[in-house]
Amino acid sequence: MLFFTEIVISGIFSGLMYALVALGFVLIFKASGVFNFAQGAMIYCAALAVVGLIDIGLPMWLAVIGSFVFMVFIGFGTQRFMLSKLVNQPPITLFMATIGLSFFLDGLGPILFGSDVRPINLGIVDEPIQSIMDNTGIGISKFDLTASGIIILLVIVLTLLFQYTKIGRALRAVADDHQAALSIGIPLKNIWTIVWCIAGFVALIAGLLWGSRNGVQFALSLTALKALPVLILGGFTSVPGAIIGGIIIGVSEKLAEIYIPPVLQDAFGGNFGGIESWFAYVFALVFLLFRPEGLFGEKHIDRV
Amino acid sequence: MITDFNTETFPKMLLRHAETIPSRMAYREKYLGIWQEITWAQNLEQVRALSCGLSNLGFNRGMNLAIIGDNRPGLYQAMLAAQCLGGVPVPLYQDSVATEMVHVLNDAAIGFVVVEDQEQVDKLLEIKDQVPTLHTIIYQDPKGLTDYVESFLHSTHQIQTAGEVFNREHTKFFMHEVSKSQPTDLSIILYTSGTTGKPKGVSHSHQNFMRAGKEACIFDNLTYKDNILAYLPMAWVGDHLFSYAQAMAAGFTVNCPESKETVMSDLREIGPTYYFAPPRVFEGLLTQVMIRIEDAGFIKRKLFQAAMNCAKKFGTQILDGQPVNFLNRLVYGFYNLTIYGPLRNVLGISRLRVAYTAGEAIGPDLFRFYRSIGINLKQFYGQTETCAYVCLQPDGHVKYDTVGPPAPGMEIKLADSGEVLVRGISVMQGYYNRPDATAESMDDEGYFHTGDAGIIDHDGHLRIIDRAKDVGKMANGKLFAPKYIENKLKFFPFIKEAVAFGDQRDTVTAFINIDFEAIANWAERRNISFAGYIDLASQADVYVMIGQCIDQVNEDLSVDDMLSHAQIDRFLILNKELDPDDDELTRTRKVRRGFIAEKYGVLIDALYAGKDEQFIEIKVKFEDGRDGQISGNIKIKNAKIVRGSPR
Amino acid sequence: MSEAKTVLRLENISLSFGGVKALTNISFDVKEHEIRSIIGPNGAGKSSMLNVINGVYHPQQGTIYFRDKVRQKMDPTQAARQGIARTFQNIALFKGMTVLDNIMTGRNTKMHSNFLMNALWWGPARNEEILNRRKVEEVIDFLEIQHIRKTPVGKLSYGLQKRVELARALAAEPSLLLLDEPMAGMNVEEKQDMCRFILEVNQQYGVTIVLIEHDMGVVMDISDRVVVLDYGKKIGDGLPADLMKNPDVISAYLGTNH
Amino acid sequence: MLYREAGQYKVSYQSDNQIFPILQDRIGILIILAIAVFAIPMFASEYMLNAILVPFLIFSLATLGLNFLTGYAGQLSLGSAAFMAVGAFAAYNFQLRIEGIPFLISFFLGGVCAAMVGIAFGLPSLRIKGFYLAVATLAAQFFVLWCLTKFSWFSNNSASGVISAQPLFLFGFPINTPTTKYLLVLAIVVFLFWIGKNIVRSSTGRSWMAVRDMDVAAEVIGIPLMKTKLIAFAISSFYCGMAGVLYAFCYLGTVEPDGFSLELSFKILFMVIIGGVGSILGNFLGAAFILLLPIVLDLTLPVISQMLNLPISGSTVSHIQLMVFGALIIFFLIVEPHGLARLWQIGKEKLRLWPFPH
Fold first, then answer.
1. Per-residue pLDDT tens over the stretch B405-455
2. Is residue C60 predicted with pLDDT exceeding 70?
3. pLDDT of A136 higher than 80
4. Between residues A297 and B494, which one has the greater pLDDT?
5. A294: Cβ–Cβ under 8 A, 6 or more apart, which residues?
6. Complex ipTM
7. Which residues, in sequence order, are CB contacts of B645 under 8 Å at separation 6+?
8. Sequence-distant (≥ 6) Cβ neighbours of residue C2 within 8 angstroms
9. Is C17 close to A304, i.e. CB distance below 8 A?
10. C92 contacts in A (CB within 8 Å)?
11. Can you tell me whether residue D7 is helix, strand or coil?
12. From the candidates D271, D333, D335, D336, which should be mutated to test the interface with A, based on the most A CB atoms within 10 A?
């Protein structure tokens, strides 16, 4: 039982990490309807930028700022050279374009900041918190806790930003209806650029956390794909959806990893580890069969 | 060789082809997206069925069968069927409105009509009670006719099925009828649009057209292997000679386009080896070419121009087999590979062996263009009364300003008035029901008076200058040939029609009709903005440009000792296109000078009164048949008279 | 008309999208061989009506009798197989294909060779292809669009596209044809042609037609009976002439800009 | 300019429907085939055959597979490589476990297995569209590879699922030299392309395009969406499967599941995009382009770096490749969404209308 709880908790934590990545997708999708496949690559780049800048002797805080600037550049570049040239294209085309973008970034990052694996040290140790350990016997990593703290904080900040700032309102207007937004004089292009920058920022945070957890390496770019099933559960447009979807995926994945292999082993013999590599996707796939519109998305009727 | 044609008639020709070249194609029609083919053998069967069916309905020897519709194998077969029964087909212009048909139908006492489709049927129903003799209408295409209840309506299909039955019961009947046909029997009545008065029926015997056809085929050695595209009105003598008489004579394949819109692409698909088109078609084609090339890239344009210059220099010589040095031949060969060849191909005329043009005179530049890119384009001369067979330009001896020497079996001479007189195998039997008119135009030596004024040059080529009756005298008694001037004007791509006046006057003046497409394009390239035809026609720049054309014509005239005195003094540009629907042109687009002179009297007066502007109101008929009015001020300008030194 | 038998009968049909009522218990019938028009101001639910008839939308209430059989919940494909074809208000051609291919798709319900035969271009498959091509060519000939046969539909004028769409519908040899504003945005000439075609389809081939059209002149000319909708409710039904007198109709429809 | 079409009229629907209606095209294709069958085996070097031509043909096939699904039926998939893997491993097992089965048959069965897996993962496409579907296909990508790695039965208990293809004999004649392998691949690929062309020009292909262009309209005119999409998935996966089989048996010889990574799937997707969505010819162009680009880069980059005398490591080269790929995709999507095939088509039109521009 205790073991189970521990798994669940760790599941929640990793789920929050996924959610963080998913958040980046959601922001961009909400505002511009672009499904940004490159989010993972952006995380990778952001993290690389940080370590790269540290390597050349900058202090952490400066490196982070530098990295953010870099992400802003990418945001502008994407808007200026890619999206602005693809307006009124079918979404699938934009999607494929972002695949191209992710390749571009996966190449660009290492060239600028070196490709060898390096850790990020946030100065938070990854060890269980004694007090809890003593009382309940459940090991909760300080790192995980702080990380989740940061994530939740970020979510709250973003929500507030969306709710109460001028930009936020503009963003929501755009998300609801592009034409309408245009008609009331909201400059879409700028909005989109801003969104990309915010997404870049989220990516940066994610990069820092993931990076300091398992070191900055190309794998980041792929692991980030896990955010996709999360999105399918949570729906592409809802921030809370992203969080909840993330947690569901995280937990179920961990549980599957623990409880399925033994079963298979008994059945076929041999080692059946590494279920995480696919579980999330298959889970999402099955889920889709029953609820195509996701947990929170609403059904839409196509008019004829 | 020629002699044994005397025994020939079209029905017998049909039998011969069905026997000698049964599996060659007689007809090819684009229908339902593919070219449906009819072999000579099938042709015989279908014609037999049709004629049996017709005689079933009571059509027999001596009757006339009206035929109305676009060029369709079925309609050509109807002609044959009628002839097999000893009847006479009478093709009508399919685009003429119902009321125009009444006269012809009555004049030829038509009882049976074969039409293409609903459109024609509706016309006939509209006028049926004005044509008492009319009692049977047979249609090819049942589309839209299924709920027509009239008892006198039959589909070709019904007729043919009935005919097959009849044929099975009376196996001898058909052959017997055919064997009765004599070369001297009437084979066709073609109604001349006639520049004045009601159309007259020109009746020809089998041997008239048969011989004309044969001789023409031999002249250009056409065989059953050749292909022609039949797209001009069946009622027009040209089509009857080319697509019927010659096709029957040589047994070559007649290809019928899918619809009006597709003629050009169908032309390209078929790639005929033998082709006829009136000058305006060639003109339109050339204009298109030039416009399309305008949009081409710089290099391509330059290449094209270079190619055209080369063609101008050597093209015609090479075509006429005159000596051209090797290097130039090489250059020409190169362009032939890169420009002429592709161009001919894209236009669909790459497989042409012979192409003819006639009707109105063709511009030398236009004529040269086609010959210089390797198309053996030639002119002939003839009219309905002569099966369109009087003069032919022989290969290698093509002069631009003549229509060539008399064709085999024909002789010509000039009357003192300069009128061209014709005698020979193709001269008609007479005007149908019009002995008076016949007497007028045929003298007792058997010469037909063409009504054209011409000159025969030193090596026997005929050169037409005008309609004889239009050749007038100017106040100073000198010769005035309006048509000649008008043609010179029309040779400019910008001028579509022109009417010259000067008879009994001391100066020559002209109406000009601009070619909207060409000038619109010209204007756009100089970004001159305009609102439409009327506006464009009144533009100052357009006047200037047309003025230059006219000066050019005067230039040419000035060197011609016969005509140098008849230069254009003043001109104006009409604000409306001359139009057959307004009776200003004939259906074959000949100018009705008298009618125009009347209708636009005020303008003529203004021209000679020396005014430089004149208001006028004109009645017009719109495409949808409604009447309307155009009114406006028309500017009048002076032209340069060249006091050139007559050679 | 009266003795002609009923092809389609709708009884108190109601349709709503997430609370928004598009149609409120509408009933009317369509008889064999007639031209039945549905008119009404924009947003009156005309198109929804058609969508209900050919199964794109499923009404929450009401029953549909097609050829005297109560129709269960069905999808458009089944409707097509039962001989219901239609055109759309804003053209729904397949932009990536030529005119010919577009019309060929209309024959789909008539083509039965499976993809394996197609793959090998086997006898039956090829013959079927040719057979149906011929049918399609007849439609092309009927609608006089030979000259654009091989043109990609994207390149065509609006009027021609409408005509091609009609062609695609006709290719299916339907017994019931639903036309959603077939003349919208056409010039006089094109309209005349379209009218001619519709009438011929109706008279020559005895196809029953349900027509939505804004041009009152056309509607009054060619339709046998007319239904008038307004805000998803039926406010009139009968012969064109009678409707002209109906006050509701006049106020709701004829009174307004049309 | 080379085209001379006047006089090429069609008297039957067959001749109007044929794959190459224009005479000059028919001649051209015959010449190309002649070169491929006779000239190349005679003159091409071993490297040329092994490292360029064979993979080129194989990838063209895989690309065609994905093109059916994405280009013709409009369903995006990121799992092509997985289906290749299924094909390869299935064929391997048929060879392994069925005594004396002709390899062509096990090849075919390999494709069939891929098709069945394809259908399974295609099912969601009935309810979801666009990138939802793309994500769903990722499931196939990861799940299939995992199964192949973990269930050692598939790889006959070899470590980490590596399999080495059995030697091939055609009527007792061994297919082991580069030339024979090339000819085998060529034969299969040409045949399958012929089949493919037939499918897309038949009612099946038209239904696909109809669904792609406007699924609602397609449904209304009686095209069953489910059937159409599933057939698309089946055929698409079959082609990818066949490509996988050849990849294993005629190209690498030894393969492991991880060889069919997401990378590979993307590579194929890129071939489709750059070659031309919804085109048959495009698959060859795309495959050639994507295969040759790295080779060109490998050759040119060092030279360039020398000239600019800034040294670049091997890893940098590969990273530059990534960037170039990415940039190219974006470039094509912006400038010519229909890829090289469209460029070729435009050029051809110009030739047909020469000397006119349009």
1. 999 999 999 887 779 999 999 999 999 999 999 998 999 999 999 988 888
2. yes
3. no
4. B494
5. A231, A232, A233, A234, A235, A236, A241, A245
6. 0.84
7. B559
8. none
9. no
10. 304
11. coil
12. D333
pLDDT in tens, C153-197: 999 999 999 999 999 999 999 999 999 999 988 888 889 999 999
Contact A87, A178 (CB under 8 A): no
H or E segment to which residue B424 belongs: strand B419-424
CB contact under 8 A, B32 and C137: yes
State pLDDT tens for residues D71-105: 999 999 999 999 999 999 999 999 999 988 999 99
Residue D338 has pLDDT above 60, yes or no: yes
Which superfamily, per CATH, for B279-467?
ANL, N-terminal domain (3.40.50.12780)
pLDDT band at A297 (very low <50, low <70, confident <90, very high): low
**Cross-chain residue pair A99–D266, CB shorter than 8 Å:** yes
3 state SS of B396: coil
Please give, rounded to a whole number of angstroms, the shortest distance from the CA of A87 to a CA of chain C.
19
Question: Which chain B residues are within 8 Å of C149, Cβ to Cβ?
Answer: 33
Beta-strand pair C176-180/C84-86: parallel
Reading phi first (left if > 0) and then psi (alpha if -120 to 50, else beta), residue B391 is in beta
- 8 Å CB contact between C178 and C151: no
In sequence order, the 6+-apart residues with CB closer than 8 A to the CB of D135 are A228, A229, A231, A232, A281, A284
Question: From the list B34, B304, B345, which residue is nearest D11 (CB)?
Answer: B34
For testing contact with chain D, the best of A288, A289, A295, A300 (most D CBs within 10 A): A288
Q: Which of C133, C147, C203 sits opposite B147 (nearest CB)?
A: C203
Q: How confident is the model over D135-156, as pLDDT tens digits? A: 888 899 999 999 999 888 898 8
pLDDT tens by residue, B341-352: 999 999 999 999
Backbone angles phi and psi of B588, in degrees to 5:
-95, 20
Q: Mean pLDDT in chain A?
A: 84
H or E element that contains B453:
strand B448-456
- Chain C residues inside the 8 Å CB shell of D203: 104, 107-108, 111, 113, 118, 128-129
Domain boundaries, chain B: 2-276, 279-467, 472-638
C1-83+174-258, CATH topology level: Rossmann fold (3.40.50)
Could you tell me the two tokens for D76?
Answer: 């995006």
Chains touching C (3+ CB pairs < 8 Å): A, B, D
Q: How big is the A-D interface in CB pairs under 8 Å?
A: 140
Distance CA B403, CA B415 (A): 18
Touch between chain A and chain B (3+ CB pairs, < 8 Å)? no
> How far is Cα D290 from Cα D293, in angstroms, rounded to an integer?
5
Other residues' Cβ atoms within 10 Å of the Cβ of residue D294: 14
pLDDT at B284 over 60: yes
Q: Specify whether the CB–CB gap between B209 and B89 falls below 8 A.
A: no
For B169-202, letters b (16+ CB in 10 Å) and e give eeeebbeebbeebebebbbbbbbbbebeeebbbb
Chain C nearest CA to A300, separation (Å) = 9
Distance of CA B23 to the CA centre of its chain: 31
CA distance A9 to A247: 10
Quote the CA–CA distance of A18 and A12 in Å, as a whole number: 10
> A with C: how many residue pairs have Cβ under 8 Å apart?
8
Select B472-638's CATH number: 3.65.10.10, 3.30.300.30, 3.30.300.230, 3.40.47.10. 3.30.300.30
Handedness of CA A52, A56, A59, A61 (dihedral sign): negative
* Average pLDDT over chain C, rounded to an integer: 89
Domains B2-276 and B279-467 share a fold: yes
Q: Do B259 and C200 touch (CB under 8 A)?
A: no
